[in-house]
UniProtKB/TrEMBL annotation:
Name the UniProt record assigns to this protein: Tautomerase
EC number per UniProt: 5.3.2.-
Stored NCBIfam families: taut
Leader sequence segment: none
Domain of life according to the entry: Bacteria
Length: 71
């Protein structure tokens, strides 16, 4: 029974967007792994972006750097 855990940042993902993520992952498991969609579990965890890092910077700082054009 496949289990997928998706992590997204708490930035206002709507219920509709989350449903589309679940649908996409389920379709992927069905098409790639030939798994019955009814046997797949997809969990979406919303996490604070302060807990994430990219290139040695917290995500919030990294995005500020991108906004200033210095990626």
């Amino acid at each position: 029974m496949p289990y997928v855990n998706i992590k997204i940042t708490r930035e206002g993902a709507t219920a509709s967007q989350k449903a589309r993520l679940i649908e996409g992952v389920t379709r992927l498991l069905s098409d790639v792994l030939d798994k019955n969609p009814a046997t797949t579990f997809v969990v979406i965890d919303e996490v604070a972006m302060e807990d994430w890092g990219i290139g040695g910077l917290p995500v919030a700082e990294y995005r500020k750097t991108l906004a200033r054009g210095r990626a």
